TrEMBL record, chain A:
Location relative to the cell: Cell membrane
Originating organism: Phytohabitans suffuscus
Gene3D superfamilies the record matches: P-loop containing nucleotide triphosphate hydrolases
Name used for this protein in its record: ABC transporter ATP-binding protein
Domain of life: Bacteria
Residue ranges occupied by any ABC transporter domain in the UniProt entry: 5-236
Family: Belongs to the ABC transporter superfamily.
Gene Ontology terms, MF aspect: ATP binding; ATP hydrolysis activity
Keyword vocabulary terms for this entry: Antibiotic resistance, ATP-binding, Nucleotide-binding, Transport
Automatic annotation (TrEMBL), chain B:
Major subcellular location class: membrane
Domain ABC transmembrane type-2: from-to ranges: 43-270
Presence of the UniProt keyword Cell membrane in the record: yes
UniProt keyword terms in alphabetical order: Antibiotic resistance, Cell membrane, Membrane, Transmembrane, Transmembrane helix, Transport
Family: Belongs to the ABC-2 integral membrane protein family.
InterPro entries, per the entry: ABC2_TM, ABC2_TM_bact-type, ABC_2_transport, Nod_factor_ABC_transporter
Protein name: Transport permease protein
Length: 268, 272
């Protein structure tokens, strides 16, 4: 069976800083696959390579067997993407935000309205659909972004830190919607997070990344069992074993520094 | 949603026809978004009217009275009106680079770039969206100038030509702004450069005074300034002044096409 995502020997550097250092990954169709690791581990760079945002050499990354370098547009048609930042357009209503993406993904005109309604309803935003997205809470914006990503019925949903900056209730709500979508559609979900507890509960398989390398891959249960710990253990413990004690140290790469500065500037 | 998992075609735009259809669809989507935003932000539309109104009411009326700028048989206010239309479009478009940087910082640009939209179509969409916003100013300036007694054409074909000239000029200056944004990558620097080039572009054009009055060096700059060709086309279409419409539109189309190409190439730099 063709892998939903296949990465072979991916290496990417920003100047002298190596963000991803020769990683291999396979995401199976229909699974929720978590890419875990602290800031600067290389998760976002990997995601950006898979989503065609970064130029990568031929035959290093493919989505459902399609090479992302050779056939970018074809790959993009298969992907729904939710970036790390809350990125809905605050000047547009929820419905207008979703409609824009329906148009950009060439959803046929006769189906467009129904598909937009369906995506908005699936994310529980029907009542707020006519309000500007600028009036939404963080959790609602995230669900709106999920609706934008889902309106084209992608085969691969890519989520970069979907719960970062959200309160626990909103975080639970987002994961609930992701699980619901997967249950109803069988869609493949690739998600990055540094919340180990969320990954443990929601992901079928995870890859632990640290300093640009993949340290371990498996189901959360397999990885925890591999510790052979005397007492109860969790993914945090697994990560400590594979990454050493320094994983809470922020090994921030250039991308994070740049992004933090931009966010600070944007928020004034 | 499950039944539609495979509903979308995998084939990309492999033929010219499909590519063109995609381009028009994307430009349409971007222009629609701009209209939706404009509909909701009436205050901005109102504030944007202040500057062209001042140019017409203060500068135009005063210089018409003192007859300081020789414009032949054409009253100065009539001569100035197309220049003010072009200036309004320039002032709107030249700051679109700031919006692109804002979109980049907010993650919106990355999300747009992951859609099946070629970079050139994204930039063209943004460029014509700037034109849509500029057209709202055209309406205001034309109404104001009519109230001031300026006789403008009512010929629908000529008015269509005005729309085309405004869209093309705005597309060029919007892309110029995106190019600068792609080079400087910062909103503050973009704001400074935008301010720095806006007035020289305006004053080194035929918007306010005839080219013959300019010193030689300024005439040379004027000939390389797409704003001058836009103003000449607008003047020819709106008040019937002598104009080289083929040349004017040729320069506007060529400069917009080149600017779209360069801005598209720099979009990846913004997304990194």
């Amino acid at each position: 069976m063709t892998a939903a995502v296949s990465v072979r020997g991916l290496r990417y550097a920003f100047g002298d800083t190596v963000a991803v250092d020769g990683i291999d990954l396979d995401v199976e169709p229909g699974e929720i696959f978590g890419l875990l690791g602290p800031n600067g581990a290389g998760k976002t760079t990997t995601i950006r390579a898979i989503t065609t945002l970064l130029p990568v050499p031929r035959d290093t990354v493919s989505v459902f067997g399609i090479d992302v370098r050779r056939r970018r547009i074809a790959v993009r048609r298969l992907i729904g993407y939710v970036p790390q930042m809350l990125s809905a357009d605050g000047a547009l209503t929820g419905r207008e935000n979703v409609s824009l993406f329906a148009r950009l993904y060439d959803v046929p005109r006769r189906e467009r309205s129904a598909r937009v309604d369906e995506a908005i309803a699936a994310m529980g935003l029907t009542e707020a659909a006519e309000r500007p997205a600028g009036t939404y809470s963080g959790g609602m914006v995230r669900r709106l972004e999920l609706a934008q990503a889902l309106v084209s019925s992608p085969q691969l949903l890519v989520l970069d830190e979907p719960t970062i900056g959200l309160d626990p209730v909103a975080r639970a709500g987002v994961w609930e919607r992701i699980a619901q979508v997967r249950r109803e559609t069988g869609m493949t979900v690739l998600v990055t997070t540094h919340y180990m507890d969320e990954a443990e509960q929601s992901c079928d398989r995870v890859a632990l990344m640290h300093r640009g390398h993949v340290r371990a891959v498996g189901t959360p249960a397999e990885l925890i069992a591999s510790l052979d710990a005397a007492g109860p253990a969790n993914l945090d413990d697994v990560f400590r074993v594979y990454a050493g004690d320094d994983w809470h140290e922020e090994t921030k790469g250039l991308g994070n520094v740049r992004q933090t500065r931009r966010t600070a500037a944007r928020l004034g | 949603m499950s039944a539609r998992l495979d509903a979308l075609p995998l084939a990309s735009a492999d033929t010219w026809g499909a590519s063109l259809r995609m381009l028009f669809a994307r430009v349409g989507a971007m222009c629609l978004v701009e209209l939706q935003k404009m509909r909701r932000d009436k205050a901005e539309l109102l504030f944007r009217c202040v500057q062209p109104a001042l140019w017409l009411l203060v500068f135009g009326v005063t210089f018409t009275k003192i007859k300081a700028i020789p414009t032949g048989d054409v009253p100065y206010l009539d001569y100035l009106t197309p220049g003010v239309i072009a200036q309004s479009a320039l002032f709107i478009s030249i700051f679109y680079g700031i919006q692109i940087i804002w979109d980049r910082d907010a993650g919106i640009l990355a999300k747009l770039m992951v859609t099946p939209t070629p970079r050139a179509a994204l930039v063209t969409g943004k460029a014509f969206a700037a034109g849509m916003r500029a057209l709202s100013q055209v309406v205001v300036v034309m109404v104001l100038s009519a109230l001031l007694g300026v006789t403008l054409t009512h010929n629908p074909l000529r008015l269509l030509g005005v729309v085309a000239a405004v869209l093309l000029g705005s597309a060029f200056f919007c892309c110029l702004s995106i190019i600068i944004a792609g080079l400087v990558l910062s909103r503050d620097r973009m704001m400074g450069i935008g301010q720095a080039i806006m007035m020289p572009l305006f004053f080194a054009s035929n918007a306010l005074y005839p080219v013959a009055l300019m010193p030689g060096w300024l005439q040379a700059i004027n000939h390389a300034n797409p704003l001058s060709y836009q103003v000449e086309a607008l003047r020819g279409l709106l008040i019937g002044s002598p104009a080289r419409l083929w040349l004017d539109f040729g320069v506007l189309i060529a400069s917009a096409a080149v600017a779209i190409g360069v801005a598209s190439a720099l979009l990846n730099r913004l997304a990194k």
